[in-house]
Specification:
alpha+beta, four-stranded antiparallel sheet, single chain, 11% strand, globular, four-stranded mixed sheet, 14 helices
Length: 395
C-alpha cells in the first residue's frame, strides 16, 4: 500500500518521464492553449462522439467537462504528419502547429479518446486503456486498441471509405492515412461481433469485446490475433523510423552503404507486415466461420451462413496470389451440402459430439467419388432430434 508521500513521488516521476519522452520524440512546445480554446476543442469532440455513437449513451456535458481537464499545448512535431499526441503521464495533449483547431481531424479525436478511456492506479500508473492492458510483467492489446480508437475517430469524423494499396495488399478502408491495415482487420472482427461490443470496450475499458469475439471463435484465436495486431503495430513503427532515417541521409554520398542497409531493413519490415496481415485475416476467417458453421441447425441458419460467408468477400484484403478465402469457401460449402441434406431429411437436428466427428470425417473426403455416399451412410448413425413442429421438406 502506498502512503501519500510515495504516491506523490511516483506522480512526479511520471511527469519527469513524460518530459523526457517529449524530448525524445522531438516535440517542441510553442505554448499552452487558453481556457476558451480548450473549451471549444472539448465541445467539438464531445459533439462528434455523441452524434456518432448514440447507442453508448455518452453524456455530452460530462464529456466536455472531462476533456476540459486536459492540459493542451501547441507544439512543433518533427517531420511526421501527426496532428496531436496525448501523454497520460502528465495528462496533456499536444497539437501540431499545422493542425486546424477549428475543425480537428481524426488524430485529434483519436488522442482525446485515449484520454477518455484510460484507467489509472492511485499512483498514476496506467492500468488499462480500452483494449490495452498494461500489466506489471506483461502488456497486451495495444494494436487492437489503436485500431479500435482510430476506427471510432474515423466514424466520428465521417471519413469516407477509400481503396488503397499498401505493401502489396489491396483493400478498402475508412482510415487511409492512419492505421489502415489494423482498422481493416478489426472491421473483419466486428463482422462477427457487431460494433457495439468493440466500441463499448474501447470507451469503457472492459472485456465485452474480447469475450464476444471468443464466443464467436475461441480463446486461442483471440490471443493469436491480438498478438499479430501488436506485431503489425511494432513493424509499422519500426518502418516509419527506418524511412525517416533514410530520408535524412538520402543526399549524403558518404552514407550510401548505410542507406542500402536501411533499404533492406525497410523491405524486410514490409514483408513482415504483409505476411502478418494475411495470416491474421486467415485466422479470422477460419476460426470465426468454423464456429458459425457449428451453429447451422436448420433452414434459416443455413441460409444466413451462406449469405454471411459470401458477403465477407467485401472485407477481404487482397494480394496478387491470395487464394485462402476462396479455398476455404469451397471447402466449407461442400461441408454445408451435407448439413443441407440432413436438414432436408429431418428438419431441425441436434447431434452428438461423436456424430460431429463423423460428419467432419465425411467432409474431408469431399474429392473422393464416394464422398456423398459415405456422407449419407454417416447420417444413419447420427443421433438426432426432429423438431415436432417442423416436417421434412426441401430446402
Amino acid at each position: 500500500m502506498y502512503n501519500n508521500i510515495e504516491v506523490q513521488k511516483e506522480k512526479n516521476v511520471f511527469v519527469m518521464s513524460a518530459n523526457s519522452e517529449l524530448i525524445k520524440e522531438g516535440i517542441q512546445i510553442i505554448g499552452p492553449l487558453n481556457e476558451l480554446e480548450v473549451n471549444k476543442i472539448a465541445t467539438v469532440i464531445a459533439r462528434k462522439l455523441c452524434t456518432a455513437f448514440p447507442e453508448h449513451n455518452l453524456d455530452y456535458n460530462k464529456l466536455i467537462n472531462a476533456i476540459n481537464t486536459l492540459k493542451m499545448y501547441v507544439a512543433k512535431f518533427p517531420g511526421d504528419n501527426s496532428a496531436a499526441k496525448y501523454f497520460y503521464k502528465n495528462n496533456s495533449i499536444y497539437f501540431s502547429n499545422r493542425t486546424d483547431l477549428s475543425s480537428l481531424d481524426t488524430l485529434a479525436i483519436h488522442e482525446c479518446i485515449h484520454f477518455l478511456q484510460e484507467v489509472k492506479s492511485d499512483s498514476g500508473r496506467l492500468v488499462r486503456m480500452g483494449l490495452y492492458q498494461n500489466g506489471l510483467f506483461k502488456s497486451s492489446g495495444m494494436g487492437l486498441n489503436e485500431a479500435a480508437v482510430q476506427l471510432m475517430a474515423s466514424i466520428a469524423s465521417q471519413t469516407s471509405f477509400d481503396s488503397v494499396h499498401y505493401f502489396g495488399m489491396d483493400f478498402t478502408t475508412q482510415s487511409s492515412e492512419y492505421y489502415p491495415i489494423l482498422t481493416s482487420l478489426i472491421r473483419q472482427m466486428t463482422y462477427f461481433t457487431g460494433t457495439y461490443p468493440l466500441f463499448h470496450s474501447t470507451l469503457f475499458s472492459d472485456d465485452i469485446f474480447k469475450n464476444t469475439f471468443i464466443a464467436n471463435s475461441n480463446p486461442e484465436a483471440f490471443e493469436e490475433i491480438s498478438k499479430n495486431f501488436d506485431n503489425i503495430l511494432k513493424f509499422e513503427e519500426e518502418l516509419n523510423n527506418v524511412t525517416n532515417r533514410m530520408f535524412i541521409i538520402s543526399n549524403s554520398p558518404s552514407d550510401a552503404k548505410r542507406y542500402n542497409d536501411l533499404l533492406h531493413k525497410a523491405e524486410s519490415l514490409k514483408k513482415q507486415i504483409h505476411n502478418t496481415t494475411i495470416n491474421t485475416q486467415n485466422c479470422i476467417i477460419k476460426n470465426c466461420f468454423d464456429k458459425e458453421f457449428e451453429l447451422v441447425k436448420d433452414k434459416e441458419s443455413l441460409k444466413r451462413f451462406q449469405k454471411k460467408i459470401y458477403n465477407f468477400k467485401n472485407l477481404i484484403i487482397q494480394t496478387e496470389n491470395y487464394e485462402y478465402y476462396l479455398e476455404y469457401y469451397r471447402s466449407i460449402m461442400d461441408e454445408l451440402a451435407i448439413k443441407s441434406e440432413i436438414i432436408k431429411r429431418y428438419g431441425v437436428i441436434i447431434y452428438s459430439e461423436e456424430a460431429q466427428k463423423d460428419l467432419a470425417l465425411a467432409a474431408k473426403t469431399q474429392y473422393n467419388i464416394s464422398f456423398f455416399n459415405m456422407a449419407m451412410n454417416k447420417l444413419r448413425e447420427i443421433r438426432y432430434i426432429v423438431a415436432e413442429t417442423i416436417k421434412p421438406k426441401d430446402i
